[in-house]
């Protein structure tokens, strides 16, 4: 049993998939180095990320697949739910050898259905979470001195709002332009900070919506589970990793008053909480329905439940 | 009075309005501006309040002072409760502050009638205009038209709002005369017809001139209170049907009557008729997306919808001679009429049956609700369960309902419509109308 271990990047995954297709090895599992646990029955092979191979595979996929199908693959990668092996089986089905393999037997069509079903279902879950966070994300206005450290490691992403999300995200995630470790401290004055903890790695997918909507304000979306950030400075958006926030901000996120927020922000939050309670109809109270739409795991950063 | 207190008063005064949609518009952000409502696919809900209704707009009244004395309304003149009036600046501040923090999709602004209809409408218009022009706000704005306001004001409002609406409230003229002495049918229907006329004309203009300004791009909607007056469901559905067909409305909202006042003219009820409201929404969907007409769903001898079974199942039981429907041959329109098959599963059946035959397990996988559909369909001529007697099918379906209810402690499925709307309902509406 052979397990491929890649570095967790999309480029790394594409390299591993490329190897899986062309090395002739029987791959039992593909996993990233964070998730990988050595086991008695399998041998691990570390896949070194190779931009050239990744580029080739991507070109092949974009040629063979519809936009939607390619987007589904990228979404499956972002789901971080161990879909790598399924993606490999899917690509194998696309290859000429794969198409010939089993003829048109019933078993084969069931296999195709299973692989395809798993991929679309996972992609749909990711897309649904993106949709949810368009609503559930909450900004708070903060002052300077918010960051300890954040290193931009991915390139500027130029977004066209009605472009091709799959290819766009792949562009963003695949273009590496060196790790220049620098902290973001040029954000002077007011800007808006939003902490999130999504199940899937959807930060890059949230960017187009929020850049289109809040083009005139500076903001930072912080995935606290993965320590990733999207920083928009009023002109363009950058994805950064290794984000560390200041103690002050961390304290205020935990609901403790830190004095870092100004009056206006506090008032706005209070007003929203007032609105939230006033708009509910006592006569139709139905908390079960409320939780069904808005699962409790998303409540952590919702201003209305502070 | 400070802003917080005002907001509390004017938000709870507006909460009886059920409209929540924020989709269907196409306003894009402007350079240096704030916000958009270009979200094409579906509306975004930002939160859900404790009653399970979604919050997508900041829904407030400009003022709850009102010169009318409508018996069903909490804000009626004779009711003793704290009153407040916003200023345009306050509404703008709230909207922008909330929008920037991603609390809301936009503003829903309605009002009680302060002094005269024109005076109130002017205030509303000024607020909305300032939001658009001074604050560069491009989020969604749903504006109520005050019945009786001057046409010119309505016309101007249409250029700044994404959706206009006039509430009918009571589904018959008699009801209005009885409970809303200050209002009459004409004052409500006239602006509605005018808005529709403008929307249609605007669509023509846009074809000719690329830069023609959009007039109420997300259409218009209205609301009916259910259960305050004795109208039957058939009357209500006929009215909705007329509004969809003749006035080009995007949505009719139904609001179960909540007794906010003791009045001999009003029915004495303890809880709002939520189940009835739910069935009306289902019937409304059948009117708009499933090709049913009001007179098919209900007949004069029994003009109320069945509370235990959904309207489509009831229709099917009354028309058993249309069934069984053969899955492999039926047209899309006929598939839509089968209980347990919706738009999506009907489309999936059509595309799947081209590639091979379907069995019952495959249908379940395509999303058909087999517990209802099983009595009404055949696959390659064979039944899953053959019961050709209306009473027996009904008994069987009801047994399922009762079992579920006893398990769930008879919890009502509330506000089905709001949920649906947030996940695509409104989009479908835009396609069909």
Number of E-state strands of chain B? 11
CATH class of the largest domain in chain B equals Alpha Beta
Number of helices of chain A: 11
Helix coverage percent of residues of chain A? 40-55%
- What kind of assembly state do the chains in view correspond to? heterodimer
Question: What do you see in this structure?
Answer:
The complex is a heterodimer of chains A (306) and B (433). With 306 residues, chain A is an alpha/beta fold. Chain A folds into two domains: 2-134, no CATH class; 140-261, no CATH class. Helices cover 45% and strands 18% of the residues of chain A. Chain A has eleven helices and nine strands. Chain A has helices spanning 10-22, 51-64, 67-79, 84-94, 96-101, 106-136, 165-174, 203-213, 247-253, 263-278, 287-293, and strands spanning 2-6, 27-32, 43-46, 140-142, 147-157, 191-196, 219-223, 228-232, 237-245. In chain A, helix 4 crosses helix 6 (106-136). Chain B folds into two domains: 3-219, Alpha-Beta Barrel (TIM Barrel), CATH 3.20.20; 311-408, no CATH class. Chain B is built from 16 helices and eleven strands. At the A-B interface, helix 6, helix 10 and helix 11 of A face helix 1, strand 1, strand 2 and helix 2 of B.
């Amino acid at each position: 049993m052979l397990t491929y271990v890649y570095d967790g990047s999309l480029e790394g995954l594409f390299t591993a998939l490329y190897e899986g297709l062309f090395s002739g090895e029987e791959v039992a599992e593909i996993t990233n180095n964070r998730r990988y646990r050595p086991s008695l029955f399998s041998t691990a092979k570390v896949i070194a990320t190779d931009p050239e191979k990744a580029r080739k595979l991507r070109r092949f996929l974009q040629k063979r697949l519809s936009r939607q199908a390619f987007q589904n693959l990228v979404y499956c990668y972002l789901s971080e739910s161990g879909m790598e092996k399924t993606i490999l089986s899917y690509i194998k089905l696309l290859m000429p050898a794969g198409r010939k393999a089993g003829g048109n037997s019933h078993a084969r069509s069931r296999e195709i259905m299973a692989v395809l079903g798993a991929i679309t279902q996972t992609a749909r879950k990711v897309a649904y979470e993106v949709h949810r966070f368009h609503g559930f994300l909450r900004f708070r206005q903060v002052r300077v001195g918010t960051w300890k450290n954040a290193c931009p490691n991915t390139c500027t992403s130029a977004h066209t709002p009605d472009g091709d999300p799959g290819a766009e995200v792949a562009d963003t995630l695949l273009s590496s332009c060196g790790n220049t470790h620098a902290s973001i401290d040029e954000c002077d004055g007011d800007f808006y900070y939003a902490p999130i903890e999504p199940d899937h790695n959807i930060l890059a997918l949230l960017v187009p919506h929020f850049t289109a909507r809040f083009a005139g304000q500076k903001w930072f979306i912080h995935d606290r589970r993965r320590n990733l950030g999207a920083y928009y400075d009023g002109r363009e958006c950058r994805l950064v990793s290794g984000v560390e926030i200041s103690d002050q901000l961390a304290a205020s996120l935990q609901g403790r008053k830190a004095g870092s927020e100004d009056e206006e922000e506090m008032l706005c939050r209070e007003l929203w909480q007032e609105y939230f309670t006033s708009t509910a109809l006592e006569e139709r109270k139905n908390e079960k329905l409320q939780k069904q739409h808005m699962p409790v795991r998303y409540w952590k950063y919702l201003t209305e439940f502070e | 009075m400070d802003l917080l207190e005002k907001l509390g008063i004017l938000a709870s005064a507006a909460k009886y309005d059920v409209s929540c949609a924020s989709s269907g518009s196409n306003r894009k952000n402007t350079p240096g501006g704030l916000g958009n409502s270009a979200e094409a696919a579906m509306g975004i809900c930002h939160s859900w309040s404790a009653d399970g209704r979604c919050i997508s707009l900041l829904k407030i009244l400009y003022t709850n002072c009102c010169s009318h004395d409508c018996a069903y309304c909490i804000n009626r003149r004779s009711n003793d409760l704290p009153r407040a009036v916003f200023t345009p600046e306050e509404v703008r501040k709230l909207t922008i502050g909330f929008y920037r923090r991603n609390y809301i999709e936009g503003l829903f602004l309605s009002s009680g009638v302060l002094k005269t209809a024109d005076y109130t409408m002017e205030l509303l218009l000024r607020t909305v205009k300032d939001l658009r022009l001074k604050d560069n706000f491009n989020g969604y704005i749903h504006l109520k038209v005050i019945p009786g306001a001057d046409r010119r004001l309505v016309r101007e409002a249409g250029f700044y709002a994404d959706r206009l609406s006039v509430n009918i409230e009571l589904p018959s003229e008699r009801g209005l005369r009885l409970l809303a002495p200050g209002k009459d049918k004409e004052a409500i229907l006239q602006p509605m017809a005018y808005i529709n006329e403008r929307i249609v004309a605007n669509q023509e203009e846009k074809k000719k001139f690329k830069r023609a300004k959009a007039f109420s791009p997300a259409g218009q909607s209205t609301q009916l209170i259910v259960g305050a007056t004795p109208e039957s469901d058939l009357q209500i559905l006929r009215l909705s049907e007329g509004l969809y067909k003749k006035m080009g409305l995007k949505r009719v909202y139904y609001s179960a009557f909540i007794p906010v006042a003791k009045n001999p003219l009003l029915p004495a009820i303890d809880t709002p008729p939520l189940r009835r409201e739910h069935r009306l929404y289902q019937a409304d969907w059948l009117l708009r997306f499933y090709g049913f007409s009001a007179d098919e769903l209900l007949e004069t001898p029994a003009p109320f919808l069945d509370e235990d079974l959904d309207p489509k199942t009831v229709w099917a039981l009354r028309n058993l001679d249309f069934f069984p429907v053969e899955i492999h041959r039926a047209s899309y329109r006929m598939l839509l009429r089968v209980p347990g098959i919706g738009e999506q599963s009907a489309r999936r059946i059509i595309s799947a049956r081209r590639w091979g035959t379907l069995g019952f397990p495959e249908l379940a996988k395509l999303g058909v609700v087999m517990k209802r559909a099983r009595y009404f369909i055949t696959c390659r001529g064979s039944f899953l369960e053959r019961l050709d007697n209306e009473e027996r099918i009904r008994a069987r379906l009801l047994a399922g309902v009762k079992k579920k209810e006893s398990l769930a402690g008879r919890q009502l499925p509330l506000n089905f419509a709001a949920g649906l709307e947030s996940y695509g309902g409104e989009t479908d509406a835009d396609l069909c109308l």
